[in-house]
UniProtKB/TrEMBL annotation:
Location of region: Disordered: 228-249
InterPro entries per record: DNA-bd_dom_put_sf (IPR009061), MerR-type_HTH_dom (IPR000551), MerR_fam (IPR047057)
SUPFAM superfamilies xrefs: Putative DNA-binding domain
Protein name: Putative MerR family transcriptional regulator
SMART domains linked: HTH_MERR
Gene3D superfamilies per record: 1.10.1660.10
Molecular functions (GO terms): DNA binding; DNA-binding transcription factor activity
Amino acid sequence: MPKFRTVDVARRAGYSVQQIRNLERAGVLPPATRTATGFRVYTEVQLQSALAYRELAVAVGPVEAKRIVRSVHTCPAAATVALLDAAHARLHTERAELALAKDAAAVISAEQIEDVRASDWMSVAELAAALGVRTSTLRHWDTEELVIPDRKAPTRERRYSPSQVRDARIVHQLRKAGYRIAPLRAVMAQLRRPAGSGDIGVALAVRDETLTGRSRALVDATAALAGLLPPSGVSPRATAPQPENRSRR
């Protein structure tokens, strides 16, 4: 079986030497064996674990990535497969919500707003009920400059015009599709400019590209994990290499 130094695994995985040590300490990599002088000696198991973690971190984030790779070394294979199934399911849900957001944004952005009457305006309670959100959510969107209503004198009560209601519907769809506040603020600022509705399509296309990258990373991670999964009924604890010396090198 090939033997690797810490620096070899670090280079192959695209991490620093310290990051590899940290991953071992976190249980993402099984403990390395040690030479008589205390230097770490890694095998293909640690290398594939590092590569799997790298791709999983892109796909599901570092916290969940550590959980999944650790499970390979400490749990039955079925437990790891279940975690991967859940990760695929979450990405599928995000993609389905993104598709809905694309359809909704296309329809909402194309709506013609004209012949506005006083009765067309909505209060914060009315709009919250129409969207199925809390009134505090709309107030938060106002604070974050996502949807900025007018204020009715002298009480300063929020009142939403038809164009602001349209903005709220777009924000609602994009938040459901996974957009964070900061990117949304930039999108909505562009959308409020003349002829700015095309920017919503660009933002959704970027989100689509990001999701595709995460999905590909999850596929690559699954391939790297496949060779690490123990046979059914075999505990991974029995096969994990044990350290010979715990001195740090």
